[in-house]
């Protein structure tokens, strides 16, 4: 039976859940040059075969001989573009490290207890405000990390969708990158430990 392997694409690396442990191992490719405001995995494209082999070997070490029968549940930053999602899908699906992949955003994983909520997160490029309803992102709004007003974002959160205007929903602040101090009063802060605990329990059928 296929296992679900939870995996997080962060600002700087890839975290993969260790087999039968609620802990994550870090996958990094040596020699990649960091580009401002460009996700690190863009660099995989120029060395794609090498990067895919390294990732495959990494998964083999973590999950043993039958690693390629597993499904990768990939948690991506909230501001990942449609083209980036396609690249991520193709890169991991063709790496030989799994039989299938499933993607979901960080914001979509913040609460299983609430069917409706607001998510707020920050990557190296954008602050992302989104309304999640029954696991689907209904509305999303971006703000440049170099030019934003926390008060305006707080006001925008109240009017992001008609559901919110007429019936308040909880707000979750994703502090996975430890960069959300300016928004700590806005809602419930999810720290890195809490976020990874949620990912450890993720079910691929719900991704």
Give a written overview of the molecule:
- By secondary structure, this protein is an alpha/beta fold.
- It is built from 5 helices and 10 strands.
- The chain has helices at 48-63, 82-93, 150-158, 162-166, 192-200; strands at residues 4-9, 14-17, 24-27, 71-76, 100-105, 116-122, 126-133, 136-144, 171-174, 188-190.
- The relative contact order is 0.15.
* Unreliable sequence segments: none
Strand arrangement across the biggest beta sheet: 3-2-1-4-5
> Average pLDDT, to the nearest integer?
92
Oligomer: single chain
Strand runs, count: 10
How many strands, which pairing sense, and closed or not: the largest β-sheet? 5 strands, mixed
DSSP helical segment count: 5
Rg calculated over all Cα atoms: 17 Å
Structural class by sheet pairing and helices: alpha/beta
What is the H/E order? Answer: EEEHEHEEEEHHEEH
Strand content: 25-35%
- End-to-end distance: 18 Å
The geometry reads as globular
Helix residue percentage: 10-25%
């Amino acid at each position: 039976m296929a296992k679900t392997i939870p995996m997080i694409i962060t600002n700087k690396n890839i975290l993969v859940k260790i087999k039968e442990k609620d802990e994550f191992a870090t996958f990094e490719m040596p020699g990649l040059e960091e580009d401002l405001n460009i996700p690190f995995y863009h660099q995989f494209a120029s060395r794609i075969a090498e990067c895919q082999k390294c990732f495959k070997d990494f998964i083999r070490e973590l999950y043993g001989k039958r690693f390629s029968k597993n499904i990768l549940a990939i948690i991506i930053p909230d501001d990942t573009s449609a083209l980036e999602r396609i690249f991520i899908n193709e890169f991991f699906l063709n790496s030989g490290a799994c039989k299938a992949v499933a993607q979901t955003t960080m914001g979509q994983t913040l609460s299983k207890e609430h069917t409706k909520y607001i998510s707020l997160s920050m990557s190296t490029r954008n602050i992302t405000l989104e309304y999640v309803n029954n696991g689907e992102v209904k509305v999303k709004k971006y703000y440049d990390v170099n030019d934003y007003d926390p008060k305006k974002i707080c006001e925008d959160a109240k009017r992001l969708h008609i559901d919110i205007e007429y019936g308040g929903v909880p707000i979750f602040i994703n502090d996975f990158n430890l960069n959300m101090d300016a928004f700590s009063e806005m809602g419930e802060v999810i720290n890195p430990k809490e976020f990874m605990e949620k990912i450890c329990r993720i079910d691929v059928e719900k991704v």
